[in-house]
Design a protein that fits this description.
Blueprint: E1 5-12, E2 15-21, H1 28-39, E3 45-51, E4 57-60, E5 72-77, H2 87-95, H3 119-135, H4 143-160, H5 166-179, H6 193-212, H7 216-219, H8 254-268, H9 275-284, H10 286-296, H11 300-306, H12 313-326
Parallel strand pairs: 1-5
Antiparallel strand pairs: 1-2, 3-4, 3-5
The protein binds a DNA duplex (20 and 20 nucleotides) through α4 and α6.
DNA sequence: AGTCGGGGAATGACAAGGTC
DNA sequence: GACCTTGTCATTCCCCGACT
C-alpha cells in the first residue's frame, strides 16, 4: 500500500489549496478524478506541475512518475468554444452547412448563451454570486476582470456576427447579468446599460484588432480615414450589413480554388454537368468568387465566362435559400452596372 | 522610487448611408 | 438637404509590469 500523498493545488492565483490523498494515484487520470471530486470542479481540466528539473517552472503533467514528492500542481481548464461539437452547435453547423466553406460563422442563436470564462474568472463570479445571494452585494468589477469578461464575450459574439446590432448587444448584456447577477450595475436603469456600452466599445476595438491582423472580413470596411486610400467604389454597407469578404477556408488558397473553378468551367461544357461536383466546388470557391467581385468588379459577361455554374437554376435557388437563412447580414452592394454580390 | 513602454477601454472626430 | 445613425480610427487616459 502506497503512503498518502500531500499536494499543493493552485486552483487560481487567489485559491491555493492543500490536498491530501489517502493513496498515491497510479495514473494521471486517477489523479484528475480525485482532484475533480475533492475540489468540486464542474469543468474539464488538465494539470501542470512545478518541475524541479526546470527550476520549478510549470510543465504539463503527462506521466504520473514525473511527479515529485509534495508536488505543486496547477489546474488548467480545458475551454470549450462555440464552434466545438456540442449537440447544439452540431445542429447549427448542419443547418448552415451551405455556408460552411465561406465562413466559420454560425447564425445568431435563438438564445445567447453566456460562454464559460477562464477558470479563475468563473471561480470569482461563482463566489460573488453566492455573496450576492446572501446579502445582495454587487461585485466591484476590477479592470482586469472586466477585460476578461469583455474579451470572451466579444470573441463569442464575433463567432456569430462581426457586426452585432443593438438588439444583439442588449441581449448579451441582459444575459450576462441574468447568469451572473453579481455583475448587475445598480446605478443603471436596466442593470446592464454599462455592460451594453462596454460591449460596443469592445467589439469595435476587437474589429480594429482583427483589421490590423489582416482579417479580410472586417478589413474591407476599413481605410476610410483622411490621408488613406479610399476603398475604391465599394459602397458603404447598410445598417446591420457588412461587406462580407470571407477569409479563404482552411487548406484552400487562390491556386487550389482557381483549379476548382477551371474544373467547373470544363464540366459545364458537357451536355450533363455533374451536379454534385458543381455544388461542391461552388461551395468551396465562395471566398475566391467574392474576392473577385469585390476587388475587380467584373462585368456580367466576364462573370458568366468565369463562373458559368453561378447562373444555373440550382445555384440561384440555393443562393436564394441561403440568403433567406442568413438574413441581410452578408450582402455587398456595388455600383450600378456591376454585379450585385447578393448574387454570390 | 521613478521612468518607460505596451495594452486596453473609452472618447470624439469624421465619413458615409439612411430617413424624413 | 438637414439631421440621424453607424462604423472606423486616431487619440487620450489609465494601469501594469519591466527595467534602472
Amino acid at each position: 500500500m502506497e503512503a498518502r500523498t500531500i499536494l499543493r493545488v493552485i486552483v487560481h492565483e487567489n485559491d491555493i489549496r492543500k490536498i491530501t490523498l489517502p493513496v498515491k494515484p497510479q495514473t494521471v487520470d486517477s489523479l484528475l478524478e480525485q482532484l475533480e471530486e475533492k475540489l468540486g470542479l464542474q469543468y474539464k481540466f488538465s494539470l501542470q506541475f512545478e518541475d524541479p528539473d526546470f527550476n520549478n517552472s510549470l510543465v504539463n503533467l503527462t506521466d504520473i512518475a514525473d511527479l515529485p514528492d509534495k508536488p505543486t500542481l496547477k489546474i488548467v481548464s480545458i475551454m470549450t468554444t462555440p464552434t466545438s461539437s456540442t449537440a447544439d452547435t452540431e445542429i447549427l453547423s448542419v443547418a448552415s452547412d451551405d455556408h460552411s466553406s465561406h465562413s466559420q460563422r454560425t447564425a445568431w442563436p435563438e438564445t445567447f448563451e453566456i460562454p464559460t470564462f477562464p477558470v479563475d474568472v468563473e471561480y470569482r463570479l461563482r463566489q460573488a454570486n453566492l455573496q450576492y445571494m446572501r446579502d445582495q452585494t454587487f461585485l466591484k468589477v476590477s479592470a482586469e476582470l472586466k477585460h476578461e469578461i469583455l474579451e470572451k464575450l466579444s470573441e463569442t459574439m464575433y463567432s456569430f456576427r462581426a457586426y452585432p446590432d443593438k438588439e444583439n448587444f442588449e441581449e448579451v448584456a441582459a444575459a450576462l447579468i441574468k447568469k451572473h447577477p453579481c455583475l448587475t450595475q445598480p446605478g443603471s436603469s436596466k442593470g446592464w446599460n454599462g455592460w451594453y456600452n462596454s460591449l460596443r466599445w469592445k467589439m469595435g476595438n476587437y474589429r480594429s484588432k482583427l483589421r490590423r491582423a489582416g482579417c479580410l472580413e472586417v478589413s474591407i470596411n476599413g481605410g476610410k480615414r483622411r490621408g488613406q486610400q479610399p476603398q475604391r467604389n465599394i459602397k458603404r454597407p447598410k445598417r446591420s450589413e457588412i461587406n462580407f469578404l470571407p477569409n479563404f477556408p482552411d487548406g484552400e488558397d487562390e491556386t487550389s480554388m482557381e483549379s476548382k473553378r477551371k474544373e467547373m468551367v470544363e464540366d459545364m461544357k458537357k451536355r450533363h454537368p455533374k451536379a454534385s461536383l458543381i455544388a461542391k466546388n461552388m461551395n468551396s470557391t465562395f471566398a475566391l468568387r467574392r474576392k473577385e467581385l469585390i476587388e475587380t468588379e467584373p462585368g456580367v459577361k466576364d462573370t458568366v465566362e468565369r463562373w458559368p455554374a453561378l447562373f444555373t437554376e440550382s445555384q440561384i435557388f440555393s443562393r436564394v435559400q441561403s440568403h433567406i437563412w442568413q438574413k441581410p447580414a452578408n450582402r455587398i452592394l456595388s455600383r450600378t452596372g456591376q454585379i450585385h454580390s447578393t448574387v454570390h
